[in-house]
């Protein structure tokens, strides 16, 4: 009678069509990546679960005839170009994202810039690329630093004789049929240099109308309206500033005279600022005003003898004693810089002064002065009798010192003649060249109570000190600041400026020798804010001066003082102060500042230089001041030049001073940059403008320049108002190389990591600036290296193309993706776009216009060694999309650098040369792959296998980092969501260097982590058992844990120590290599294979068995006597046969390359004869008569792929050409059936991975083999641009079906889903209820049948059959019987494995890999699964045994697996051999 398969209640089975319907409504996540083209066979990776391919590659693509490693016979173009390893390569990106090389420079050549031209005059439909750099040839065509490439004919051309020097930038101006070149070279025609112009209409050089520029040009860009060209670089241009040229001002300021109305002035003296001594000064005894003899007249309460009124214009009138010559004296002990004197005559009671003279103190020199005669309007001079008009309508009269500015400590004015009863005088004011302010607040720094006063504010601990000079004293402030903890020490000057104009600003520094503080002197930061709403100009100057010095810190426009604004200058301890000569304190001094008027601007915008001072500049009579400068008659602009196309000027900008009528807003910015450059000291040597870009009316300028605490490396100017502005956070922290405008934002790239000011936005080499909100923003996490060029894509208005010396883009969450020096950013989504990877640095790019025939393509140049469509960094995922197509994807956030985890060799490794396609030579094999091994293989060849022979040594293979050589999966059931962890092993180090050799990838958050203590060495194999991962490889070592085979507890997150005897090197070697670790089916037996000698003291060469439950090693049968096993696989439904591949010797002494081991009878059997060591093995569907092996011949080194049919080996297709190296063989399911070929079924193919060369196809990383033909499948590319090798295909489903699935078209699926959606829920409920009811009824019926069977059960044969059906997979193990090799079957004898003593190795807290003892709470479940033990009381053996019955001897132990399905028969397992079957229940002990 049939026996029910189970006494438990079965869960109702839902029909498959219902499951399919449900899944049609489940949202699917589309895998990003590259879909396999229809031209190659389609693998159904979806059946295999999660699939990964590891290898030594950084990029992975599907094979195509355009592959850079394809043979010339398969390439679509016989003239396909390759990327150069010695020069720069010009290449392009196609619409489908594939990179193609166009040509390269000579060795060492560099391409700096590209531009695309539609070439309307050359009838070139696709346009022309123009190329600039430093090179002598382009793809063999002689070209000096410039050239062109026709996109219609695919040919390079020279541009005449080229240019003499480096070309940095290009601009293609199709509207004017011109190509502009900038750099460092002599003009190809005419005079000038650094700028060249090529006419596309005449195909000849032509002369720019402005000649050229006097320094290196780095950037050429158009204005927003394309009416001007902007040039940037390291050069200067000069502009005349004389009135005859009607020069324009530097900014939109307008000078207004500050002299009272109806003042008789001299030249521009009306714009000078009066410097009047305040009445309070006399109280401090710094200055004293004396006049006399005075009149005693006191009328209507007015004291006409009060001298203080002389210091405050408009307050009172002083009258001299009647009919007496009187003097007005100002006496002090500090020098005052004066240009002249403004006299206000007195008109009181008929009295006025008619003549006077002016004598300076302390030199008692009667000064010659220039004045304007109010009657004639002519300039006159006077000395001892200077006339003063008595016309009361004249408010004041100016007298200018003819010899220029005079430094004096006082003066004496003698009133010699008068009208009426005596002399009268209202006030007297000294005039300065501009403005004056003293740090101590003393001296001539205010104008009484008018509020028009120069003021000073200080921060920090300052003290007033006095220094003696010739005939005078000098007051100044001094502060001593600790070098260990420097505090703020700052003085801010607020000078009163009477008129807006052009000024030079000087800072006075008292000499340290006279004061005696030279040891502590340091440097200070000077910051000037000259314009309302304008920029500050900062410089650092040294105060380590021996003698009194005045230093020019600013030259340019200054606004007048108003109620809303006062120009300021601050002096503070430098941010990086110069070290003091001695001591631990900085000494900072603050004396005074002076503004010298150099030009005035009228209402028409004309600037006129002042003539108040003599041509020799400032006079230093009576003073030891040095380092003075003269007034200039021209303005200098630095780093920027605007060329308006409408200009008629023919002056050479490189050699001539340009007319002021060509000045623009950008020019004025150049004036400001020049002033800041002059004040920057030693930093000036690195200044340069690298980029200029226009966004509407605003021009942004970037480069290497700064004004501390104001702007750094980037600045903008409004071309309509001429207003320059610093960007938010004072700019960027490092050099700006490039800029571009996309989507209303301005993007900057360069060598910076944040904004300039502290606490600003963190930026990594690229930044976005919003002109409307004036705010910075990061582009995700930026990139990991500096950016050299930015382009706005013409294919999409939202894409920004980024180029430079970087290798990865970084997302907002910190994960990085390898891209090489090329990336694309979507401005609309604020996300990086997957664009593949280039191996190298990209220096330049160009995009065609959107209307061109090549608008979907973009062009680039740089030091690039190769490219790939998919950036995978050593490991790729292979999946199947909804249409059944295979897809390559990367593991998000998994990025490994080019450094490996292998130990550093004492001798330097040989560099890996850039390999070309392996070409079959006339001899029978090529040696390209043997270079990776040694030349000794053939010398060690054994053409005839002999007894006790030594197996050939398989040379060690080095995998270029990054290389993922093994992979596995583990589900963390204790974590939230039970995430699947992908475990990677190989020769790699993460980009952050914190993960090496072994890595864990969490698919939930995309994070990459490593073990608690890093692993050193190269991991070659991984195997997960429970919560432990077994790790094998070469030279593995964990600090404080040990070396060799390692085990890591994934749940505990730590290395397992103890519990396993170590594997030891074979005799004559110091190394242990574990090549593979495989678990035998559903058993506790783990096969460890490689190159080793013993496990502890147990002899266990090349292959050893580990019991993961009992934690002990055992030798498989008699074991192997030596050699190396490279790969293993299993045959038989119960995996009761092990297939080992490599080069090893059996215990009999015979050398074998492939052998089988029977777990049933513990015996080894060599499988036929192969040409040489086998490196890879694959058993087709566990069929021991269909085995494929790949390796190399010991006679000539050629590669082979052969198939074992159970009796002999047969060589497969010859397409696997010499030079191939096979690392792995694996059968993969296909999307659709193919015509079966050879011994391979129609629903699968053999995937061959490694470093392969296929006839008529070229180099590939993986190929598919259908039993007759090789199909090139995958092409990997290493980080150096060479062919990448495949190492390991790994998957999560341990047992999958090869049966072909059929996919419905997505559109049809959607239509069906919509049609049944409304009734689906109700239908499912009804079906489930119905099925549940039916199964319940059948269960009750089956139970009744079972009860009847218990009463009448006597049919033994029927019982055998039902038990056999229930455990068919286990019973089939008894049917194999060593039938793999006919000749070797006789060797099958019952041999017991040698086992290690568990007690001697199980020193840990639990046996390694045993979940039962690791987790005591599961012990009962484990024992229940293992069954109970009994002993046979009688022999159960003989020829009458039926299939499924297990022969046993009396006294032999057995494990009862199932004693519930029959009262007369037990299903048992032999613990010694693992065989299972049924025995009579009465034969066993209870």
UniProtKB/TrEMBL annotation:
One of its GO terms (cellular component) is plasma membrane of growing cell tip. Keywords: Membrane, SH3 domain, Signal, Transmembrane, Transmembrane helix. Residues 256-265 have a biased composition (Polar residues). Residues 246-255 have a biased composition (Low complexity). It comes from the Eukaryota. Residues 1-31 form the signal peptide. The chain crosses the membrane at residues 1308-1335. This is SH3 domain-containing protein. Residues 246-265, 604-626, 1391-1447 are annotated as: Disordered. Residues 1411-1427 have a biased composition (Acidic residues). PROSITE patterns: SH3 (PS50002). It comes from Kwoniella mangroviensis CBS 10435. Residues 1425-1486 form the SH3 domain. InterPro entries: Gal_Oxase/kelch_b-propeller (IPR011043), Kelch-typ_b-propeller (IPR015915), Rax2-like_C (IPR024982), Rax2-like_second (IPR048266), Rax2-like_third (IPR048265), SH3-like_dom_sf (IPR036028), SH3_domain (IPR001452).
């Amino acid at each position: 009678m049939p026996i029910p398969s189970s006494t438990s209640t079965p869960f109702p089975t839902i029909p498959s069509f219902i499951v399919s319907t449900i899944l049609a409504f489940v949202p699917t996540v589309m895998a990003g990546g590259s879909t396999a083209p229809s031209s190659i066979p389609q693998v159904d990776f979806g059946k295999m679960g999660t699939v990964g391919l590891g290898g030594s590659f950084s990029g992975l693509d599907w094979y195509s005839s355009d592959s850079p490693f394809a043979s010339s016979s398969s390439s679509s173009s016989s003239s396909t170009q390759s990327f150069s390893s010695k020069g720069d390569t010009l290449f392009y990106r196609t619409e489908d994202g594939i990179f193609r090389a166009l040509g390269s420079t000579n060795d060492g050549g560099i391409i700096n810039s590209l531009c695309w031209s539609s070439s309307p005059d050359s009838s070139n439909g696709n346009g022309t690329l123009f190329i600039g750099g430093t090179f002598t040839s382009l793809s063999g065509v002689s070209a000096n630093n410039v050239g062109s490439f026709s996109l219609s004919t695919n040919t390079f051309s020279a541009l005449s004789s080229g240019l003499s020097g480096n070309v940095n930038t290009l601009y293609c101006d199709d509207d004017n049929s011109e190509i502009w070149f900038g750099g460092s070279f002599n003009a190809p025609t005419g005079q000038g240099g650094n700028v060249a112009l090529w006419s596309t209409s005449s195909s000849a050089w032509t002369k720019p109308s402005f000649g050229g520029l006097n320094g290196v040009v780095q950037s050429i860009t158009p204005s927003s309206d394309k009416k001007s060209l902007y040039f940037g670089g390291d050069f200067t241009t000069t502009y005349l500033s004389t009135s005859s040229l009607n020069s324009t001002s530097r900014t939109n300021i307008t000078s207004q005279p500050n002299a009272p109305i109806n003042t008789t002035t001299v030249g521009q003296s009306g714009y000078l600022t009066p410097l009047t001594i305040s009445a309070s000064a006399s109280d401090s005894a710094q200055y004293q005003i004396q006049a006399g003899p005075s009149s005693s007249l006191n009328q209507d309460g007015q004291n006409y003898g009060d001298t203080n009124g002389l210091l405050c214009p408009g307050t009172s009138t002083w009258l001299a004693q009647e009919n007496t010559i009187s003097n007005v004296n100002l006496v002090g002990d500090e020098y005052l810089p004066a240009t002249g004197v403004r006299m206000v005559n007195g008109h009181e009671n008929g009295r006025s002064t008619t003549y006077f003279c002016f004598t300076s103190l302390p030199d008692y020199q009667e000064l010659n002065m220039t004045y304007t005669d109010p009657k004639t309007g002519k300039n006159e001079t006077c000395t001892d009798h200077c006339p003063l008009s008595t016309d009361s309508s004249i408010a004041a009269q100016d007298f200018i010192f003819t010899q220029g500015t005079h430094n004096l400590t006082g003066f004496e004015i003698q009133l010699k003649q008068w009208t009426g009863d005596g002399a009268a005088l209202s006030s007297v004011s000294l005039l300065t060249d501009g403005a004056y302010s003293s740090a101590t607040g003393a001296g001539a720094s205010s104008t009484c109570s008018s509020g028009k006063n120069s003021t000073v504010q200080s921060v920090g601990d300052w003290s007033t000190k006095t220094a003696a000079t010739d005939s005078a004293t000098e007051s100044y402030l001094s502060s001593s600041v600790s070098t260990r903890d420097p505090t703020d020490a700052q003085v801010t000057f607020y000078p009163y400026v009477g008129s807006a104009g052009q000024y030079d600003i000087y800072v006075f520094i008292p000499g340290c020798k006279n004061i005696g503080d030279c040891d502590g002197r340091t440097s200070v930061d000077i910051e000037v804010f000259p314009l309302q709403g304008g920029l500050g100009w900062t410089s650092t100057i040294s105060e380590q001066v021996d003698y009194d010095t005045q230093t020019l810190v600013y030259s340019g426009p200054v606004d007048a003082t108003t109620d809303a604004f006062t120009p300021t200058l601050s002096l503070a301890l430098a941010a990086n102060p110069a070290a003091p000569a001695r001591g631990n304190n900085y000494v900072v001094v603050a004396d005074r500042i002076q503004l010298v008027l150099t030009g005035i601007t009228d209402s028409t915008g004309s600037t006129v230089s002042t003539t108040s001072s003599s041509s020799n500049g400032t006079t230093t009579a009576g003073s030891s001041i040095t380092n003075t400068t003269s007034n200039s008659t021209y303005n200098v602009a630095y780093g920027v030049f605007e060329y308006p196309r409408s200009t008629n000027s023919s002056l050479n900008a490189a050699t001539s001073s340009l007319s002021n009528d060509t000045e623009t807003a950008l020019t004025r910015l150049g004036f400001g940059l020049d002033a800041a450059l002059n004040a920057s000291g030693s930093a000036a040597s690195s200044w340069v403008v690298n980029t200029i870009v226009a966004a509407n009316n605003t021009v942004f300028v970037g480069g290497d320049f700064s004004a501390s605490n104001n702007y750094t490396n980037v600045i903008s100017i409004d071309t309509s108002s001429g207003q320059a502005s610093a960007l938010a956070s004072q700019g960027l922290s490092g050099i700006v190389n490039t800029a571009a405008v996309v989507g209303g934002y301005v993007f900057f790239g360069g060598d910076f990591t944040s904004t300039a000011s502290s606490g600003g936005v963190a930026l990594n080499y690229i930044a976005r600036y919003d002109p409307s909100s004036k705010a910075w923003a990061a582009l995700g996490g930026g990139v990991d290296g500096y950016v050299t060029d930015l382009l706005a894509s013409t294919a999409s208005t939202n894409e920004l193309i980024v180029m430079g010396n970087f290798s990865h883009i970084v997302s907002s969450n910190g994960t990085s993706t390898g891209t090489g020096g090329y990336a694309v950013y979507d401005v609309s989504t604020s996300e990086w776009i997957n664009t593949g990877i280039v191996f190298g640095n990209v220096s330049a790019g160009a995009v065609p216009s959107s209307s061109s025939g090549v608008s979907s393509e973009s062009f680039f140049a740089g030091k690039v060694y190769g490219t790939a469509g998919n950036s995978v960094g050593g490991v790729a995922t292979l999946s199947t999309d909804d249409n059944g197509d295979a897809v390559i994807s990367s593991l998000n956030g998994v990025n490994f650098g080019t450094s490996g985890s292998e130990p550093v060799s004492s001798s330097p490794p040989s560099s890996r040369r850039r390999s070309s396609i392996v070409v079959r030579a006339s001899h029978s094999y090529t040696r390209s792959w043997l270079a990776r091994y040694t030349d000794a293989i053939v010398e060690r060849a054994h053409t005839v296998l002999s007894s006790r022979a030594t197996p050939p040594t398989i040379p060690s293979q080095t995998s270029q980092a990054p290389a993922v050589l093994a992979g596995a999966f583990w589900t963390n059931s204790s974590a939230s969501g039970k995430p699947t962890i992908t475990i990677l092993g190989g020769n790699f180090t993460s980009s952050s260097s914190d993960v090496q050799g072994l890595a864990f990838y969490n698919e939930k958050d995309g994070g990459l982590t490593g073990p608690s203590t890093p692993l050193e060495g190269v991991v070659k194999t991984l195997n997960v058992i429970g919560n432990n991962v077994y790790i094998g490889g070469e030279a593995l070592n964990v600090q404080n844990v040990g070396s060799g085979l390692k085990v890591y507890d994934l749940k505990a997150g730590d290395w397992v120590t103890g519990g396993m005897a170590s594997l030891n090197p074979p005799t004559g070697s110091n190394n242990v290599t574990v090549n593979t670790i495989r678990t035998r089916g559903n058993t506790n037996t783990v096969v460890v294979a490689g190159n080793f000698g013993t496990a502890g003291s147990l002899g266990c060469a090349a292959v050893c068995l580990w019991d993961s439950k009992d934690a002990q090693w055992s030798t498989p049968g008699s074991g192997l006597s030596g050699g190396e096993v490279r790969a293993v696989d299993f045959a038989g439904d119960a995996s009761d046969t092990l297939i080992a591949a490599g080069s090893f010797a059996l215990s009999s002494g015979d050398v074998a390359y492939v052998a089988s081991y029977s777990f049933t009878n513990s015996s080894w059997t060599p499988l036929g004869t192969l040409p040489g060591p086998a490196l890879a093995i694959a058993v087709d569907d566990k069929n021991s008569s269909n085995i494929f092996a790949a390796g190399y011949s010991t006679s000539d080194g050629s590669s082979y792929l052969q198939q074992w049919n159970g009796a002999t080996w047969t060589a497969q297709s010859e397409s696997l050409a010499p030079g191939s190296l096979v690392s792995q063989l694996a059968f993969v399911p296909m999307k659709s059936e193919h015509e079966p070929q050879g011994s391979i079924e129609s629903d699968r193919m053999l995937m061959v991975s490694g470093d392969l060369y296929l006839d008529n196809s070229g180099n590939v990383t993986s190929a598919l083999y259908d039993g007759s033909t090789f199909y090139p499948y995958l092409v990997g590319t290493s980080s150096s641009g060479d062919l990448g090798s495949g190492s390991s295909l790994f998957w999560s489903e341990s047992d999958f079906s090869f049966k072909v699935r059929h996919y419905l078209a997505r559109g049809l699926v959607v239509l069906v889903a919509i049609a049944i959606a409304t009734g689906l829920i109700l239908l499912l409920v009804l079906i489930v209820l119905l099925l549940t009811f039916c199964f319940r009824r059948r269960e009750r019926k089956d139970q009744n049948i079972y009860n009847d069977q218990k009463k009448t059960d006597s049919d033994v044969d029927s019982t055998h059959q039902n038990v056999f059906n229930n455990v068919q997979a286990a019973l089939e193990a008894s049917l194999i019987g060593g039938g793999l090799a006919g000749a070797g079957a006789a060797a099958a004898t019952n041999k017991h494995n040698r086992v290690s003593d568990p007690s001697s190795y199980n020193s840990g807290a639990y046996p390694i890999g045993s979940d039962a003892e690791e987790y005591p709470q599961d012990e009962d479940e484990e024992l229940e699964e293992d069954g109970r033990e009994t002993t046979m009381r009688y022999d159960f053996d003989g020829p009458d045994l039926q299939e499924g019955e297990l022969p046993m001897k009396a006294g032999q132990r057995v494990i009862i697996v199932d004693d519930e399905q029959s009262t007369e028969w037990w299903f048992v397992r032999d613990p010694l051999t693992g065989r299972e079957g049924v025995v009579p229940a009465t034969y066993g002990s209870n």
